[in-house]
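Q: I have 512 residues here and want to know how they pack in 3D. Can you give me a structure?
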Amino acid sequence: MTDTTTTTARTGTAGTTAPVPQQERHVPEALGVHRIAALLAGHTEAPVTADDVDTLIEQGHLEPHSTWKRWTLYSTAAALALDKELVTGVARERVAWVEASVTRDEAAARIGWHWRDIARMGEEGRIVKGRLGRYLTADVDRLAAEADGEQYLTAQSAAADVLEIRHPADWKYVEAAGWITPATTYELPVGTSGRRTVTVPLYRLADVRAVRDLPGVDWEAVRGLPKGKVSPLREYAALAPTRAAAVRAFAQALADRHQVTVWARHSPYTGRWEVEWERRDDHEPIRSAVAAALAADPAASAFWEEVDLGGTDWGPITREARQLLEPGAAVVLDTETTDLGGRTVEIAVVDAATGKKLMETLVNPEAPITDGARWVHGITDEMVADARTFDKILPRLKKVTRDRTVCAYNTEFDQSVVVGDTERVGKKPDHLGGASWYCLMKAYASWLGSGPWIRLGGRHRALGDAQAAREVLIEMSKGRGTEFTPRPPAPGDPVSGPPPGTALAADAAAQS
């Protein structure tokens, strides 16, 4: 190991030493903001931070020199050439501001408000947000006195901390009586994915206090009631159906009336309800008829502005999936190859409707299998050495896919492999080269509203992956949200007419 701490060395004269000059530390030509700050801190002996460097850049004292990856770099020579008093002055101003100000969360804790209230007051100009996103402490203290009552509360906090009643047992009657309405809402992420949210209403503290001061309400009789005890406040309001209950009831009525499957889903992204439905052979019910039914529904019509009828990304895909699962409509195919985009070493085809295996075979690719591909699917050169070549299995492949839509999890990959091998052996692709392929991966991504690439999760053998892809097709066919299927009429229920789409219905329409 080399000793780098020695600062002296022997000379040619016995017993004498000569000092070794220390090498100057190498300074790169350009550095990022944080390292420029460290360089200036050492140069000026001031507590320079990256925020100070940002200020110097904003004031035009430093300009970009170059970039590295996505980072902007600044000239070290230009930084060291800055006036020391200028740099130390910027650092002193930042230190003074930090001492006189607080962060958003510190401001909220200081006056007992929610951080959203602090941010909102800043957006409304009631309090000035300064450098580093901080607020002047004196302004925060003044805000606590001048704007008391304007902070927002959740329903739970309003009920428990201000009115001292139960949530939701008593609070739901406060809302139903029309005594209070939300001032605003925000979306709260739930679950581990971070993609789902719930809408949380917020109420002004002053409005909650006004409810507490309503004349004629015996709040003492409400406070302290045990769980399960009926609320005395229910006499003030007749509860209307919730939005969810009203939309679901409408979806069931729509399914019963038109004898089709209906799906109702609450979108965590928009906070709105989405309603999709099957189309019969006569393309009924059309959207305008469904919209008219919604407008006429006594309960759901109150929420018509919050309901999207059709028009979703997942609705058409669900209907396509159901059609592909009809008997004889489609097959699901998967290939394993010598390499990414290489030759076929295994192919499997299953019936989309039944899951029955129509074809599964190893294929001699007449070329070596790469190590990377073998690591994925586990198929070796020895396993395919005695297998039939692609030209021998092609007739069977064409037979089981003829007059069917060919579904594959990644159509771009599997179709290119099949067509490439077909042409390689001197044959015509026929229908395999046409447009009768359906990409399950792209459909699934649109159905979920996610990115374009979703891992299949199969076993990386052709039959296992084809079966896994079929499960994706089945999942998409079930729609999203809650499914509502037509219910048979109960004894004594009025019957509006013959079932839609039947000969009797056609005769009735002709006579009317």
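Q: Anything worth noting?
A: The CA atoms of residues 74 and 251 lie 62 Å apart. The longest helix spans residues 84-100.
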